[in-house]
Design goal:
Bound molecules: zinc ion
Distance between the termini of chain A: 25 Å
Shape of chain A: globular
Oligomer: homodimer
Number of domains of chain A: 1
Strand order of the largest sheet of chain A: 4-3-5
Largest interface: A-B, 42 and 41 residues
Number of helices of chain A: 5
CATH superfamily of chain A: Winged helix-like DNA-binding domain superfamily/Winged helix DNA-binding domain
DNA sequence: GCTATCATGTTATAGTATAACAACCCACGC
DNA sequence: GCGTGGGTTGTTATACTATAACATGATAGC
């Protein structure tokens, strides 16, 4: 992946490289696990990465149709199901949208910083937050299976304060 | 409100009282702030509380129609908009559903424990989690405006471990 | 090649939410 | 009282998100 957690928020990053890396990692990961990253699934993953922003399913569908006339909603939703199940894509619940996973090899919960102005999303993936949440929930007798953490606000470029 | 954060998860709580309290608090709060808690909005709030579970908008609509034939989707969505804007109701993003706010007087972010088996939802509202998230985000130059934290799993009644 | 399995195509429909404009109501000032 | 103006609700239509159900096609192991 190209750079740290905030690379998405910076004006320009080498997004071609960033997408290529993601696809290469996905290929390798699927090969290791014996998963079938078909042409369709690979292409959907590529389209998800193509903007480095949360992408909605029907936008993906529109893109797909340009090159695959027979694409229908199940086409894209099934590809997304596969990609999400195998941790290559995350769903952003508060936006009904999808983003490529920045680190599919590191097991992690979904934690996202979402800029309401430029729509960029960065994956936070902070262990301390995850552990604090898990500890508090466990302390109440609750068994945690999935954490959904979505932080909305302004990224550094769009009005955020400078890092200390 | 009737009891602590986990009262929702216990077999039986005095839910009539719990709903009455919520409505009384809402009335008082709106009176203080000069907000118009109309009959419709009050009734929708009551319906949201009626199950002490996440309720979907179209279920509310169905309930409403039993007594107000002219109710349509905007009827319920507009009431929900008002209730959410004034912190009387929370939206659970991962479920497309709505729950009554357990403590509208305490300013707080939305943090929820959601049992996938019995569908009960408890509002966590833990300051340490909120502060940890805020600190981490701020450290990256991100200005936090809204936190969405939804923890899915099993509640104590449905298979969670006992609290220590 | 045969066959079981998984993947995709295809059609239809379910579920969630908002746009746009009309009608109504009520508080306020005249 | 009367108008008037803003906020609330009614009404119709439509946009957006997602899945069901069954048919067809590709793939891999035997
Ligand atoms: Zn990820
Ligand atoms: Zn931004
Ligand atoms: Zn209750
Ligand atoms: Zn439960």
């Amino acid at each position: 992946m190209a750079g740290d957690v905030l690379s998405t928020f910076r004006g320009v990053h080498d997004h071609g490289r960033c997408t290529d890396d993601a696809l290469a990692t996905a290929e390798a990961l699927c090969a290791e696990k014996g998963l079938r990253l078909t042409a369709l699934r690979r292409r959907v993953l590529e389209l998800v990465w193509s903007r480095h922003q949360p992408v909605r399913a029907y936008d993906l569908l529109e893109d797909l149709r340009a090159e695959r006339r027979r694409a229908a909603p199940p086409t894209v939703y099934r590809a997304l199901d596969f990609l999400i199940a195998n941790r290559l894509v995350h769903r952003i619940e508060s936006l009904n949208a999808y983003v490529g996973c920045a680190g599919p090899r590191n097991p992690h919960v979904g934690q996202f910083l979402i800029c309401r102005k430029c729509s960029a999303v960065a994956e936070l993936n902070d262990g301390e937050i995850a552990r604090t949440v898990a500890r508090k929930a466990r302390g109440l007798g609750f068994t945690v299976e999935r954490q959904t953490i979505e932080i909305a606000g302004l990224c550094p470029q769009c009005g955020g304060t400078r890092a200390a």
